[in-house]
Amino acid sequence: DFMIVSKDADMHDLSLIFRNPPKVVWIRLGNCSTRQVEHLLRREYQTIQLFYEDESSSLLGLS
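The structure assignment produced for this chain is given below.
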């Protein structure tokens, strides 16, 4: 199993159309550094883990 992590809004649209799998983590930070993305992912680790375990969810937006 895997998740896609993307800043691209097209991934959001595809997730809504095709549902899961795969699960999509949509990074909604705008123009940002890799370090900022890393910080967000580390900060939201528990949220991401719960999302991964939820079979009914296909999209998680983080900002």
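Interim note for the steering committee: Helices lie at 9-18, 34-43, 45-53. Residues 3-62 form one domain.
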